[in-house]
Amino acid sequence: MKILITGGAGFIGANFIYYELEHHPEDQIVCLDNLTYAGNLETLKEALENPNFRFVKGDIADRPFVFSLFEKEKFDIVVNFAAESHVDRSIESPEIFVKTNVLGTTTLLDASREYGVKRYHQVSTDEVYGDLPLDRKDLMFTEETPLHTSSPYSSAKAAADLFVLAYYRTYNLPVTISRCSNNYGPYHFPEKLIPLIISRALNDETIPVYGTGENVRDWLYVEDHCSAIDLIIRNGRVGEVYNIGGHNERTNLEVVKTILKALSKPESLIRYVTDRKGHDLRYAIDPTKIETELGWQPKYNFDTGIAVTIDWYLNHREWWENIINGEYKNYYEKMYGNR
Ligand code: NAD
Ligand code: TYD
After folding, report:
1. How far is 47 from 71, CA to CA, in rounded Å?
2. N or C of the chain: less Cβ packing under 10 Å?
3. What is the number of structural domains in the chain?
4. Mind listing the pLDDT tens digit for each residue in 167-187?
5. CA 215/CA 254 separation, integer angstroms
6. Ligand that lies nearest to the alpha carbon of residue 208, given by its number in the listed order
7. pTM strictly above 0.85
């Protein structure tokens, strides 16, 4: 089988490439990525040594390019991870989110239709459901929860999901969608909360916490997300949405304190900063459907996953130091300098 993985030079896509190469060595993998600030070829160094893996640089919204690639390669499966993925950046500059996340998705859908792809899978997010109140622990997102987005990022992801479902209904394109909670693990870009805490704490730098730090996220170790997507593309029912999450809700403050403790760093590093505009309060996934239909179970809980993740960052200092010493330095100053 030949699988196109878009956005594979980013965090989750790269982890998925390694997962597929390990678990399905008979398959051929092509990664399409245009290497934005979030894409890093260094991450794919080991994959590039595998004869069943190839990297192609290009934009998922570049129609002629995407169509010629599909014509040449005859993909069986397309898994679309490529996206602008950071909520804070979407608040600063929404337009690129529309271009990549919406136009890019429809371009891939059109090419999948034209060249007879057997399965198109869209990697989506629980953020399309909006947020839940902090004082209703009984509420969780199911696949039936209405879309009710807050940020330009989640709005663009929800728009893409609706196009994917429209291509199923209108053209019978065999699609699936997964909506996952917050991921963490190896190769996570240090603008996101967990790698930001680890990298800054290791350098004895302050940790910016938005608002009161009471917002809740439902954390999933990235390998568990990969195993879920792998099951969906092979055994999932077309036209269906599957939520992915492992019941690991934590407040942001709990996450920060857990990591500081594990690194033996003082809580005095915490710096409360102005809250994010429109900040979602709480995410929580009900994963009953994927558990009962596909037999998916996560291998990690937050305690085991965060320990492995911290170890990874300790052992891969060069990977993240190259990022934080580059262009990212200017981003950090711009976003947090006067906050
Ligand atoms: P990321 O920002 O780390 O990686 C995105 C990748 O897409 C980068 O390699 C980038 O170069 C590439 N890309 C961006 N625009 C492109 C374009 N126009 N053409 C080709 N490639 C392009 O993101 P991530 O955290 O790995 O997220 C991957 C997917 O998973 C996204 O669709 C995101 O919405 C979704 N998701 C992420 C999380 C999370 O916690 N990170 C949770 C749920 C869902
Ligand atoms: P983030 O990693 O950006 O993921 P998302 O917004 O998609 O859930 O942020 C996770 C949580 O951490 C979110 O509630 C915002 C908060 N946060 C901070 O408090 N400080 C920070 O510097 C960042 C990046 C995030």
Report:
1. 24
2. C
3. 1
4. 999 999 999 999 999 999 999
5. 10
6. 2
7. yes
